[in-house]
Automatic annotation (TrEMBL):
This protein's UniProt keywords: Endonuclease, Hydrolase, Magnesium, Metal-binding, Nuclease
Documented EC number(s): 3.1.26.4
Needed co-factor(s): Mg(2+)
Summary of the function given for this chain in its UniProt record: Endonuclease that specifically degrades the RNA of RNA-DNA hybrids.
CDD domains attached to this UniProt entry: RNase_HI_bacteria_like
Cytoplasm among keywords: no
Protein's recorded name: Ribonuclease H
InterPro entries listed in its UniProt record: Ribosomal_bL9/RNase_H1_N, RNase_H1_N, RNase_H1_N_sf, RNaseH-like_sf, RNaseH_domain, RNaseH_sf
All residue ranges annotated as the RNase H type-1 domain in the record: 71-197
GO molecular function, one term: RNA-DNA hybrid ribonuclease activity
Ribonuclease H1 N-terminal domain location: 7-50
Length: 203
């Protein structure tokens, strides 16, 4: 059994900012903080470099640690009979301003079931945000949507690896916030129903 590689966590926007040597410290800095921006690394030098804005073409820099989302974006995915679907909704002031949903196009990705839809929803959402020139806070109910993008979870298959790579290209225009599935959150339920509807699933 191999030894586990050390991890370091850099927090650019959170309750506390800096480089931490444990996930517990990082979690305290970002848990429940709206617009948290953080990433994990295997070396201290990489973590400090990213924190100082020295790596990645990131719109956030050392002069601006704040992250103000112009839209809250709710994302979700669904799956039935070998097909997956995705949906997102851009919300501001309690109203949906932009939304989209569709059946997934990658039949191989369907092996990940509804997670394939969750991934697609997040990707389409950040692409839309980029087109609009806005920053968004992505609300999701599957932890991997954030953790694959931040590096907290290792992307092990071609689909999660492609997702992590694409999200890195859009780094700086999004943050994450997890919501509990089927907990009565109005807009989380809204995109859940939209994703199901394109597959013909009645809630």
């Amino acid at each position: 059994m191999g030894t586990q590689k050390p991890k370091f966590y850099a927090v650019r926007a959170g309750r506390d900012k800096g480089v931490f040597s444990s996930w517990e410290e990082c979690k305290k800095a970002i848990h429940g903080f709206s617009g948290a921006v953080y990433r994990s690394f295997t070396t201290l030098d990489e973590a400090q470099a990213w924190f100082n804005g020295e790596t990645f073409s990131d719109p956030l820099n050392t002069e601006d640690h704040s992250f103000i989302a112009e839209y809250d974006v709710y994302t979700d995915g669904s799956y039935v009979n070998g097909q997956y679907a995705w949906a997102y909704a851009f919300v501001k002031n309690g109203k949906v301003h932009y939304e989209d949903a569709d059946v997934g196009k990658n039949s191989a990705a369907a092996t990940m079931r509804n997670v394939a839809g969750e991934i697609a929803a997040a990707l389409y959402a950040v692409k839309k945000a980029s087109q609009l020139g806005v920053k968004i806070r992505i609300f999701h109910d599957y932890a991997g949507i954030a953790f694959w993008a931040t590096g907290e979870w290792k992307a092990k298959n071609e689909f999660t690896q492609a997702y992590a790579k694409m999200m890195n290209q859009y780094r700086g225009i999004y943050s994450f916030e997890k919501v509990k599935a089927h907990s009565g959150d109005e807009f989380n339920d809204y995109v859940d129903i939209k994703a199901k509807s394109v597959l013909g699933i009645a809630d």
